[in-house]
TrEMBL record:
The keyword tRNA processing does not apply. Its cofactor is K(+). One of its GO terms (biological process) is GTP biosynthetic process. K(+) binds at G309, G311, C314. Keywords: CBS domain, GMP biosynthesis, Metal-binding, NAD, Oxidoreductase, Potassium, Purine biosynthesis. It catalyses: IMP + NAD(+) + H2O = XMP + NADH + H(+). It holds the Pfam family CBS. Transmembrane segments: none annotated. The lineage of its organism: Archaea, Promethearchaeati, Promethearchaeota, Promethearchaeia, Promethearchaeales. This is IMP dehydrogenase. InterPro entries: Aldolase_TIM (IPR013785), CBS_dom (IPR000644), CBS_dom_sf (IPR046342), IMP_DH (IPR005990), IMP_DH/GMP_Rdtase_CS (IPR015875), IMP_DH_GMPRt (IPR001093). It comes from the Archaea.
Length: 486
């Protein structure tokens, strides 16, 4: 009962991050000794943070960067199986200094259009391709005439026949060439001159010592999946390729403790070689059942994802009256894991994190990793373009059960109750643009690390010892900024 008592669930309370605070503790180690690394089954991560499997959060660019910075991205599934396969391939083939998903323009585009692309994507230059995807030029801000009204064609002002490098260029060769020609970007091409990637000075410099990698040195990749195999044979083949190439499959359903979902996932585990995290669930009993009664093979079943209705875009709890806030759910499932599969099953606390300070609270009640959409939807690396509302830069963030996400059409309705096609269980809105992922991750990691240091835990592996106290409403108000004119 350790974690349930600690989270006050033994008194019948369903508490959430805001209800509690971590208490300070004695610290006998140096800040530099505090270790944020954690494990998910056989996989090791220098950062215990995962980006959610949502279509406004994790596509290949987010997944590549999450892995480069030591965490994990879980690709969403609100798309065709072939798009999923493409995304997984891009992550697994990504070389950490090469951009593979390059934004390009054609010679016939107008400068006005290019200016819009530059602004929306925050990119300062593009390779120019002909109709066969061969590189015929490059256009950067420096090529565009200063007059704001200028609206000639890309072909008129681009730098023609730019220097390109072969697709298999090494980091050292790339850096040397960039220095030699004093440029910011060089396109990479195959033997026919067709664009294969891009190197930039900015991306070549850092070496990503913390990147999450598989045994072959490729980036680790998560993939959101349905608990059911596709029925169509062609789709099944494509799904199998994507699933076997990804490292970790995560069933992506609102409430996983259902006979159909369990049986479906068992079939998946029989034919897919990758590891599985199942979820979401929110109670001790559900975890006990999944661990003890399902017969999921031990070598495939590596984790459980918990939390229901806490997500910032979720309406499941208010639409259905059922929910398990992530803090509560983590403690419940952590106790079941300790009782029945200690050290064998990892726990991901999913959703509901508002502030960096919320992270330590889930590790204190037994999480191994945390997952968030809220923190990452506003990053440069999330899918979607920048928008502007009353002068503020924003990006779209939406729940996978929102009517907007469901409207995509390819979304499999099995994330929610299978027969319910009308009831939205999520919303869509705008979230402030936050800039590059690196900065966002750094502030999360710093908040978590400082919290562990204040609480006297030398790392994630000691967080379970950290004490938790319940706070009053007055305490919550006092924790926030108060009595200040802003
Ligand atoms: P945050 O708090 O990071 O939560 O925004 C992300 C998590 O929320 C879940 N999710 C949903 N839950 N309706 C729900 O009830 C939805 O439409 C929805 N979309 C995502 C999911 O677990 C995600 O990781």
């Amino acid at each position: 009962n350790y974690f349930r008592e600690k989270s006050f669930a033994d008194r019948g309370w369903i508490l959430t991050f805001n209800d509690v605070l971590t208490l300070p503790g004695y610290t006998s180690f140096k800040p530099s000794e505090c270790d944020l690394s954690s494990n998910l089954g056989p996989f090791h991560f220098e950062s215990p943070i995962i980006s959610a499997s949502m279509d406004t959060v994790t596509e290949e660019e987010m997944a590549i960067n999450m892995a480069l910075f030591g965490g994990l991205g879980v690709l969403h599934r609100n798309c065709s199986y072939s798009k999923q396969l493409q995304m997984v391939k891009k992550v697994k083939r990504a070389r950490n200094f090469i951009i593979e998903d390059v934004a390009t323009v054609s010679p016939g585009m107008t400068i006005k259009e290019v200016r819009v692309m530059m602004k929306n994507r925050g990119i300062s230059g593009f390779p120019v391709l002909d109709s066969k995807n061969k590189v015929i030029g490059i256009i950067t801000q420096r090529d565009i005439p200063f007059e704001s009204e200028y609206d000639g064609k890309v072909g008129d002002v681009m730098t023609k026949d730019p220097i390109c490098l072969p697709a298999n260029v090494s980091r050292e060769e790339g850096l040397a060439k960039l220095y030699e020609i004093r440029k910011e970007k060089i396109p990479l091409v195959d033997s026919d001159g067709v664009l294969t990637g891009l190197i930039t000075k900015k991306d070549l410099k850092p070496n990503y010592p913390y990147a999450s990698k598989d045994t072959k040195g490729r980036l680790l990749c998560g993939l959101g999946c349905s608990p059911f195999l596709p029925k169509n044979l062609e789709e099944l083949e494509t799904f199998k390729k994507a699933a076997n190439l990804a490292d970790i499959l995560m069933t992506d359903v609102a409430e996983f403790h259902k006979k159909d979902d369990i049986e479906g996932t068992k079939k998946l585990m029989e034919i897919i070689d990758s590891k599985f995290v199942v979820g979401n669930i929110g109670t001790y009993e559900a975890a006990e059942d999944l661990i003890c009664n399902t017969g999921f093979p031990e070598d495939k079943f590596i984790g459980i994802k918990v939390g229901m209705g806490s997500g910032s875009i979720c309406t499941t709890s208010i639409q259905t009256g059922v929910g398990a806030p992530t803090f509560f759910a983590t403690a419940q499932v952590a106790d079941a894991i300790n009782d029945y599969a200690p050290g064998k099953i990892s726990l991901i606390a999913d959703g509901g994190f508002k502030f960096p300070g919320d992270l330590i609270k889930s590790f204190a009640v037994g999480a191994d990793m945390i997952m968030s959409g809220h923190f990452f939807a506003g990053c440069t690396e999330s899918p979607g373009i920048l928008d502007n509302i009353q002068g503020r830069k924003v990006k779209i963030y939406r729940g996978m059960g929102s009517k907007e996400a469901r409207a995509i059409g390819s979304y499999v309705f099995d994330r929610y109750v299978k027969d319910s096609k009308k009831l939205a269980e999520g919303v869509s809105g705008y979230t402030p643009f936050l800039g590059p992922l690196e900065g966002v991750l750094l502030s999360l990691e710093e908040g978590l690390k400082n919290g562990l240091i204040y609480a006297g835990a030398k790392g994630i592996s000691e967080a379970y010892k950290v004490k938790i106290g319940r706070v009053s409403t007055a305490g919550i108000n006092e924790s926030n900024v108060h009595d200040l004119i802003r």
